[in-house]
Amino acid sequence: MNPHFLRIADLTVAFSTRDPSLHIGPQGAAKRFAVAESTHPDVTVDVSWMEATDPIGIEEAQLRFDSGGIWKLYEQQNEFLFVFSSPRFIGGGVYKLALFDKDFCRGQVRLVKSCYPPGESIYPLEYPLDELLMLNLLGRGRGVELHACGIVDGAGQGFLFCGQSGAGKSTTAGLWQKDVPGAEVLSDDRIVIRKESGTYFMYGTPWHGDAQLSQAKRAPLSRVFVLKQGRQNGIQTLSAATAAAELFARSFPAFHDSSALDFTVQFLSEMSDQKPCELLTFVRDSSAVEFVRRSVA
């Protein structure tokens, strides 16, 4: 079976197949998060082929979430079924199914054979499935994913720069890489936050932004900033309530799961109480880096 293992934010996914005609493995940025083995993976996924004419199995299922894009989520008998379809295929057909138990501990991925080139290696958890799986794991009391750039300075301090698309996360990542010796970018677009023994850690993820920067590393979280572009550099401390709201607006909760939503809100509220959050108005040049470094000195 030769299973493959991915470890993202200290959560491990194992995926394998029993079909010798099916060649699978991580691709792209996911390769950076591959590990040799794991004795106790958090999720085990079996991968197999299916035919385009095979039943999907949603007749009795309840639609829980429609992304408006390539995937929909259904629930039936405490199991969750992701259905992936694309206009690239005839009739906008289904090209992949992913079925998970209620705890997202075990799953099956079924690939429509006619939708994949013969003999080529396939990453069965191809985005957005790998991120969807991680979001559901995090929402079960493990942590939160944020739309953010995570930077570790040369002294090991972890700075989180949160922002929506276009806020300047990739620009910020590039400036710190250029101007700060020893600085590392964990991701320029998606960061996972988890709490361990009272300490908040930020983790890199494979889901990078325009700068395509990501690393399978973590660092203790030192400061939290919400990005806002402006004509001059400035910092404004946010109240805990305002900070929690700003962070939630930049989070990726499992919207179909009310308990996961509750956990996300509670996690960010507690984090905002314990980690001051600041609004960073910044100019898109090296002066912003120097301004932040002076403010945290």
**Beta-strand fraction estimate:** 35-45%
Strand order of the largest sheet: 3-1-2-4-9-8-7-6-5
Q: Element order, helices and strands?
A: EEEEEEEEEHEEHEEEEEHHEH
Q: What is the highest CATH level, the class of the largest domain?
A: Alpha Beta
Given as residue ranges, the uncertain stretches (5+ residues, pLDDT < 50) are: none
Rough shape?
globular
Rg estimate, integer Å: 20 Å
Walk me through this protein's architecture.
The protein is of the alpha+beta class. The protein folds into two domains: 4-138, no CATH class; 144-296, Phosphoenolpyruvate Carboxykinase, domain 3. Helices cover 20% and strands 36% of the residues. It contains five helices and 17 strands. Strands 3-1-2-4-9-8-7-6-5 form a nine-stranded mixed beta sheet, covered by helices on one side. Strands 10-11-15-14-13 form a five-stranded mixed barrel. Helix 3 (240-248) packs across helix 4 (258-274). The protein is globular and about 60 Å long. The mean pLDDT is 95.
